Q: What sequence folds into this?
């Protein structure tokens, strides 16, 4: 370790590392960008007192978070020999920064030269810190890796935790609690992040909200087993108070390294913001938008056939649906589950990726040609990693499945082991053939079960890690073969949404619920991590299939607008006025998507219970769209001022209401006069007033929303 601290600085954030008393680097500071003088000052003041009943030297907290250096909390590393003897990684070998101070790597070894661990830190212009660990077996023994976590220190003021839980059709339910002594650990062993994924673990100054408070957050860019924890020991962590840790959950026997082999951990992403959750989103969205897999073409309006037809594939009906979709302005027609052999219900056929000629006697090419001839792309549903026992695939190759207790069927299906070479090749070749022969532009890639104990049938070892890596490889090979192909990540709705998969797909399916009341919150919180253009959001029929709640079309349309929009509804049964409204909405989506899909996401803290105010502001602050949403009746019977966040206070804005998709139903005798006076031409108001004091907005009935558009003069 050099005498000077390692100081990474980028995107308004600094990470400062310096050796602790044991010579292992510790994170001295992660947060606001500091000057070199400040960094030196932080290092000069980095040691705490020697406490009563404690070590005879100041406590510290190194990046290895090691028991051997006096840390009694969760360690960062678990590296053992085959006999179970821990490898003591205690010797810093090398530490350096590169790329004008935005990257650092720190190599740590053991005295016996059995292992080498490299911690990597990369601070992007978005302010997102990527960190990962490599563990290499450098001796003559096989080593087992049981943990490779990234653990960052937190200051005393980081006193409140926000993370997420949820279930099918109810993803990303926020939960908050105070930081206390002990460990708040969220772990998933589902083989995917799951509907209850912690998603983002954020710790902030108590009461932090969308627009205020200082927040430190972590997310694992990984689609398999994972853990997040916030931990506080009475003795603190050096001069810090608590820690925020993250890593892949590794089962015993999962990662064995032969001499010369390396385990690379998934990448942990750390974000810091001093203006609340909107600040975190701004960092995450900027980071995602700079990744190579991020889609750079306008997000096509799509129609998905699932809730329109389910397994009832009648080619004549689906042709009619496609025709009508094209007239409305749909740009991508997605044929969901049910097109392949034996798939007349969800209990059979999965894995047999051949077109079912009993329902599609001429194959899918006629549908595809028709869809393309009316100017749309074609999408097709696959669930490549799974198979039903009742399938030709499993009858012929039961050994391709991961070993699981047969009673653990889940939606009547089991997972394949992609590490079986023949299974991997079969999937790659079947999808490639269909994509080529049918001319597929888009795959909805589903994953409809948890995989708790996916063991290899040949070695008996857990295969979760390998299967996630092979999934990414499979998607990448397909996109190399078919560069135009786009992929959506679906897992019974939003069970596999993370920034690992977004480096291989162009869309995620946020939830199986198209009920707009549920969707408003699911999209709001999914948007903490992902920008709207990656989040699939569909208009369903008036009675939602998941909740049987009936809602107004205008509310469903406004809800679906704030994402990568689509329709999931048998529109051949729609009344004429519904078709007209859908067509108007399609035009509105196309008009507004340049703003919606490139802007800054903003959300208000100051609305009464049961209401939401969210929007998107263009990066130059000239154009904005807000949704004023009411989910429940209001507890207050008046219309206080509502501030519109994210505007440029130095500009004047023309405020207009966009009611092409229908008027919101009101819970009042008349609108506030200024609002009633908006008319076609709108009203001009200063951005400083709109953003600070705000304006009174109509009191809406529940399950209603209205759209406000603001253009700078
Ligand atoms: C999952 C998906 C749905 C649909 C069905 C098809 O549940 O989340 O959108 O594709 O599978 O079986």
A:
């Amino acid at each position: 370790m050099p005498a000077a601290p390692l100081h990474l600085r980028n995107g308004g954030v600094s990470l400062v590392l310096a050796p602790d008393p044991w010579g292992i680097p510790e994170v001295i500071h992660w947060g606001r960008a500091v000057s070199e003088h400040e960094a030196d000052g932080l290092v000069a003041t980095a040691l705490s007192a020697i406490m009563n009943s404690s070590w005879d030297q100041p406590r510290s907290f190194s990046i290895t978070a090691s028991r051997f250096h006096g840390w009694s909390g969760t360690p960062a590393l678990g590296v053992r020999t085959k006999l179970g003897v821990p490898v003591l990684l205690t010797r810093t070998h090398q530490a350096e920064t590169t790329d004008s101070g935005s990257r650092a790597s720190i190599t740590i070894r053991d005295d016996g030269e059995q292992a080498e661990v490299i911690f990597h830190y990369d601070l992007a212009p978005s302010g997102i810190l990527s960190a990962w660990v490599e563990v290499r077996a450098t001796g003559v023994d096989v080593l087992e890796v049981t943990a490779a976590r990234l653990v960052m220190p937190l200051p005393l003021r980081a006193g409140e935790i926000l993370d997420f839980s949820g279930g099918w059709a109810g993803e990303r339910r926020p939960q908050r609690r105070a930081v206390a002594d002990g460990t708040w650990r969220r772990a998933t062993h589902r083989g995917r992040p799951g509907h209850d994924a912690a998603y983002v673990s954020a710790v902030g100054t108590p009461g932090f909200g969308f627009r205020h408070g200082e927040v430190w957050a972590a997310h694992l860019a990984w689609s398999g087993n994972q853990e997040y924890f916030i931990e506080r020991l009475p003795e603190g962590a050096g001069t810090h108070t608590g820690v925020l840790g993250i890593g892949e959950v590794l089962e015993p026997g999962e990662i064995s390294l032969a001499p010369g082999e390396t385990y690379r951990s998934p990448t942990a992403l750390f974000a810091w913001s001093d203006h609340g959750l909107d600040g975190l989103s701004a960092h995450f969205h900027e980071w995602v938008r700079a990744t190579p897999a991020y889609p750079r073409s306008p997000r096509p309006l799509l129609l998905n056939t699932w809730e329109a037809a389910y397994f009832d594939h009648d080619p004549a009906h689906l042709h009619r649906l496609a025709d009508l979709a094209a007239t409305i302005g749909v740009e991508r027609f997605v044929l969901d589950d049910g097109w392949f052999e034996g798939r007349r219900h969800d209990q059979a056929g999965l894995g047999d990726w051949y077109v079912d000629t009993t329902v599609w006697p001429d194959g899918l090419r006629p549908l595809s040609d028709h869809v393309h001839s009316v100017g749309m792309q074609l999408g097709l549903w696959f669930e490549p990693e799974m198979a039903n026992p009742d399938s030709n695939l499993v009858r012929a190759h039961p050994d391709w499945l991961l070993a699981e207790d047969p009673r653990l069927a889940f939606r009547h299906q089991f997972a394949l082991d992609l590490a079986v070479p023949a299974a991997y090749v079969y999937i790659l070749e079947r999808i490639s053939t269909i994509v080529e022969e049918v001319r597929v532009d888009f795959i909805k890639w589903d994953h409809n079960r948890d995989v708790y104990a996916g063991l290899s049938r040949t070695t008996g070892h857990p295969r979760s890690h390998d299967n996630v890596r092979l999934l990414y490889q499979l998607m990448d090979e397909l996109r190399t073969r078919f560069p135009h192909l786009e992929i959506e990540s679906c897992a019974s709705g939003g069970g596999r949404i993370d920034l690992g998969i977004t480096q291989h797909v162009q869309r995620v399916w946020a939830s199986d619920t198209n009920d707009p009341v549920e969707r408003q919150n699911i999209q709001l919180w999914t948007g903490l991590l992902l920008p709207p253009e990656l989040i699939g959001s569909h208009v369903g029929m008036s009675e939602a299939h998941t909740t049987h709640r009936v809602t107004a079309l205008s509310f469903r349309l406004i809800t679906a607008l704030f994402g990568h929009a689509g329709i999931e509804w048998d529109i051949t049964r729609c009344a004429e006025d519904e078709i007209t409204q859908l067509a108007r909405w399609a035009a509105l989506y196309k008009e507004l998507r340049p703003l919606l899909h490139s802007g800054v996401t903003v959300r208000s803290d100051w609305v009464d219970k049961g209401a939401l105010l969210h929007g998107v502001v263009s990066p130059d602050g000239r154009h904005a769209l807000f949704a004023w949403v009411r989910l429940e009746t209001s507890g207050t019977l008046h219309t206080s001022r509502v501030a519109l966040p994210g505007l440029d206070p130095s500009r004047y804005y023309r405020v207009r209401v966009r009611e092409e998709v229908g008027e919101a139903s009101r819970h009042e005798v008349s609108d506030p006069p200024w609002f009633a006076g908006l008319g076609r031409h709108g009203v001009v108001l200063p951005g400083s007033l709109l953003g600070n004091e705000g304006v009174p907005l109509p009191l809406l009935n529940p399950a209603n929303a209205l759209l406000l558009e603001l253009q700078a003069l």
Observations:
- Residues 306, 336-337, 346, 381, 446, 448, 490, 492-493, 512 surround alpha-D-galactopyranose (CB under 6 Å).
